[in-house]
Amino acid sequence: MIKHASIVPLIGGETIGSELAFGEKPTYMMSYEAFEANDAHARNYYSGTPYYVLDRHERPTESVDVVSSVCPCAGLSQLSHGFGDDNPNNQWMGITARHVLENVKPKVFWGENAPGFAGKIGETVRNELKQIGKENGYTMSVYRTKSLLHGAPQIRERSFYFFWRDDKVPLLTFYNREHKKIEDVIRNVRSNFQTEPINKKTPSKDDLYYKYILEHIHGGITHREFSAMVEPQKVRTQDVFSYIERMGYDYATVGEWMEERGYEREVEKCTRRHAKLASGGNIMRRGTIIPKDYIGAFVGHYPTMLTHPDEDRFINYREAMSIMGLPEDFELVDASPKVANHICQNVPVQTATDMATEVLATLKGLRKMVDTDYSLL
Fold first, then answer.
1. Angle at CA 83, nearest 5°, toward 79 and 88?
2. pTM over 0.90
3. Has residue 82 got a pLDDT over 60?
């Protein structure tokens, strides 16, 4: 039996993945006051599992084999303002690593972070963690992947780091599973609990650019008809703005349509977009997204702008949780827009399960060990 725990579990995707791989619920969870609100959903799901707040001097006494962590990744994510190896959010990786390796001393400690952790921008943080591991008798592996390769229908590039209480590191498996289609994941949700749309607006009526596509470009078709006909595209061009551009329309033309219908504020926006693109610049494209095949990383505006594939509405909380692989009996403590981003601040359960499976295989002696104290995969 593998006993496992987590530190800074956030909503719990990695902890659930560990449970699926090891066949055991977590022995306990640890965290800090800064993350209690984010951890609340995992605490609710694992009701009865001890939860220790370390900066309130609460400490577990039971030993475990494996500890997992989902430290904040904003410091090394290019999607965040102020990203870089000197971002204060990065401190949590060092804080958690030092606590776990010095005090808990598991056989394996592993965690997840932004893809930049495995690149040049993460070099300073990686070296710090490597040194913490070395001081405590651990080797270190860094593994970069994306959730699409683990069967989840989103690109979501991520880095994982592993500390091994050994003098070698394992040769970990590369995954390339067939992914489920994003529209099927959404359609197959069966729960009737927490099914309120995150964004209560109606896509075909309230997003004027989507309305332009349905009424002007396609002559008055419905959302369901458009969803059925639209072809899979590169994930960065699934939004309504990219579709309008791909169909050969410019924003001066779109602006004329807006003006005819009295949408004056949008006329001004169209004028600015047209001028910016004409001068060789770029624009922000954060409009309605129709799910087709797979999506980009389910973060940022995705929870509020991704539609149901058939119904003329945006996705609901349960569908968002299913996109991240959370179980059907998982419940948000408060299903409200202010906590919708908690769903995103997560490791897709499918990806986490594969990573935990690599840990299990290594502990069972099923992975080849390489004579080095550090590897970057």
1. 130
2. yes
3. no
